[in-house]
Amino acid sequence: MLSSVVLSASTLLAACSGGGSKTEGQVLNLSTTADIPSMNPSLATDMVSFQTFENVYEGLYRLDKNTKPVPALAVGEPEKSKDKKTWTIKLRKDAKWSNGDPVTANDFVYAWREVVNPKTGSEYAFIMFDIENAQDINEGKKDVNSLGVKAIDDHTLQIKLKNVQPYFEGLLSFGTFMPKNEKVAKKYGDKYGTDAKKAVYNGPFKMTEWKTEDSFKLVKNDKYWNKKVVKLEGINYRVVKDVQTGLNLYDTDKIDSVGISSDNVEKYKDKPDFKTELTAAMSYFKVNHKNKYLANKNVRLAIAKSIDKQSYVDKNLKNGSVPANQITPKDVYKGPDDTDFSKIAGGDILKYDTNAAKEYWKKAKQELGEDKITIELLTTDQETAKTDAEFFKEQLEKNLDGLTVKIKMQPFKQKLALEDKRDYDLSYSNWFPDYADPMTFLDLFWSKQTNTNYKDAKYDQLIEDAKGPLLKDPKARWKALGEASTMLLEEAHTIPVIQRGSAYLQKTYVKDVLTNSSNIYQYDKAYIKK
Fold this sequence. Notes:
- The chain is built from 15 helices and 21 strands.
- Strand 2 and strand 3 (69-71) form a beta hairpin.
- The chain has helices at 47-56, 105-116, 134-138, 168-171, 182-188, 243-251, 265-268, 297-304, 309-317, 354-368, 383-399, 412-420, 439-442, 457-467, 474-490, and strands at residues 27-32, 61-63, 69-71, 79-80, 86-90, 149-153, 156-160, 205-211, 215-220, 234-239, 257-259, 274-287, 322-323, 373-380, 403-410, 426-431, 495-506, 510-511, 514-515, 521-522, 527-528.
- Among the domains are: 58-182, Dipeptide-binding Protein, Domain 1 (Dipeptide-binding Protein, domain 1), CATH 3.90.76.10; 278-501, Dipeptide-binding Protein, Domain 3 (Dipeptide-binding Protein, domain 3, Roll), CATH 3.10.105.
- The strands form six sheets. Strands 11, 12, 13, 14, 15, 16 and 17 form a seven-stranded mixed β-sheet that branches. A four-stranded mixed β-sheet has the order 1-10-9-8, covered by helices on one side.
- Helix 8 (297-304) packs antiparallel against helix 10 (354-368) and helix 14 packs antiparallel against helix 15 (474-490).
- The longest helix is centred in the C-terminal third of the chain and has 17 residues, at 383-399.
- By secondary structure, it is α+β, with helices and mostly antiparallel strands.
């Protein structure tokens, strides 16, 4: 999720972990392993923020349990022109913001213009580049008012597309595409979304409290157009970075769901409230190509082949994760001939192989003229993130003679900031797919939006062709995406580690929480039945 939706290993569980006081009535108590970096849809880049958006904001569409878009604020499917480049979408007339203002088509126009406006500095502006003039606006070549989105009237939105992507309708459910109340946004300016009171909400819940790095609270939004289906009166979140603290809260019935670490799996695995699932999220090492050591392909390949991913899954995680040698998940994306993308995405080029790793390392040291090399590993400050980092450090230093790995732990928000500034060497990161296409992973390394300092003209061309001219030829587009993936792996421009699973406990009285392969949790129809 992001030009860097980067999460620590344990943050995957943030959407489904516990926190708060003992459950009473229809109040759900959850926790998150990291605080929300931003409640401003124009600026957010991470899973914690987007998970919260899913329940306090509402866009044109939502994703159902099968990750298919279904109408939310939109009334039915888009009406499309003959060339499918002009979409007209009717909006519900009964939708309101939590302050009572009507939700209008202009709220989308205002919000989307703000995202692509270069003055905003949105890292997710690229996700709108299929809209006419969006990229030129973001690059300072055109006026923001030329964006291909228009309010025909209060309840009719027109979108003009540069490219007709197969996944664009699903994108309209994504957090960056949420509307924004212009009056309120202008009132708070740069402070919009930095406090529970400095925003308004149009989803099933609204945020009423937010104590930084401690807790936040959602309550039922009585202005929500479909409030009759919302059974929960509220959701209390607590920031709980320590796994054992979370388990203690869960075992004493003070929270309703909690993520668990590997050393607790044996204790809970036979209980009815124990759950595991394999998601479409990937964990990988983000590689800063400006680092003098990591700019060397043999250093990168040596690192990639020095990590025993199976051991990591079996010993550190035990949560349903599986080793990964590609940057895209298996059994998720099917091509025009129904072939899984993993079949053409580069194979097992980066599989664990200590003999090969040592050879690459020997070459690297000869090329660099150095026998001792130090690399910093950036991670978050959660307990499980520390355990993961120590595992990687042990593996790398054991297999690569002369390498020292220094672990740098930071709060989640600060980790994101360091990545944004490209102030890191290696960063252990997670990516949750934004939409149902391999591009959601592959354009992370497109030079126009990556924060890894990776730039390759051929790679960029493959991505741009797949975003544009090859849309008319699905088979050729699929092939180009496969070539791009293979390019990344051949020289370890990124280092995949696992396809993420999650292990968690959830009280059996919690019902009808909707989730899908994007690992987004929707609570609008959830309820408690004891």
